[in-house]
Write a structure and sequence with these properties.
With about 180 residues, the chain is an alpha/beta fold. Helix content is about 55%, strand content about 15%. It has 7 helices and 5 strands; from the N terminus they run E-H-E-H-H-E-H-E-H-H-E-H.
């Protein structure tokens, strides 16, 4: 495996599983959002605020093309990355891709527990957040399902289960 790109909705565990797999395989890990923040010297939230979603997606597209050229890496994409431009096709050309699949209910719980500020969820009530996740997941699933592999992560709620998911991912990819 030269490159692995992990895709899925926000809160699906892309970074968590990517970091754990990276550590286990001793392969560099890149979170695309972190990479963007480093290169742009601004947070994703600041970029969204200054340039809107369209401006952010253009930057994200460019940075994806940068990081997906790296050798022997694991990359976690942003939740929307596969859904814009030709990103999913490019990801599939450049790497093994895996979709971390979870239900709207599970994603909502993960995001509620998480500490990360998500620009697309700001200023929404809990009911609005759930409705937003559910609607957007349905819109994006078509892109996510184009990944070469899928891994169900609905039970990803403890360290032991993260390790189980990493083991399942290694088996799925023959690593």
């Amino acid at each position: 495996m030269n490159r692995l790109i992990i895709i899925g909705y926000m809160g699906s565990g892309k970074t968590t599983i990517g970091k754990a797999l990276s550590k286990e395989l001793n392969i560099p890990f890149y979170d695309l959002d972190w990479y963007i923040e480093n290169r742009m010297r601004k947070t994703v939230s600041q970029i969204f605020e200054e340039r809107g979603e369209e401006g952010f997606r253009k930057i994200e597209h460019e940075m994806l093309h940068e990081v997906a050229e790296f050798e022997h890496v694991i990359i976690s994409s942003g939740g929307g990355t596969p859904c814009f431009f030709d990103n999913i096709d490019y990801m599939n050309q450049q790497a093994e891709t895996v979709y971390l699949k979870a239900t709207s209910e599970v994603l909502y719980k993960h995001l509620k527990m998480g500490k990360t500020v998500r620009p697309l969820l700001l200023n929404k009530t809990p009911e609005e957040v759930y409705a937003y996740i559910d609607k957007q997941l349905k819109e994006r699933e078509h892109f996510y399902l184009q990944a070469k592999h899928q891994l169900d992560v609905n039970l990803l709620d403890s360290y032991d289960k993260i390790q189980i998911a990493v083991t399942q991912l290694r088996a799925l990819l023959n690593l």
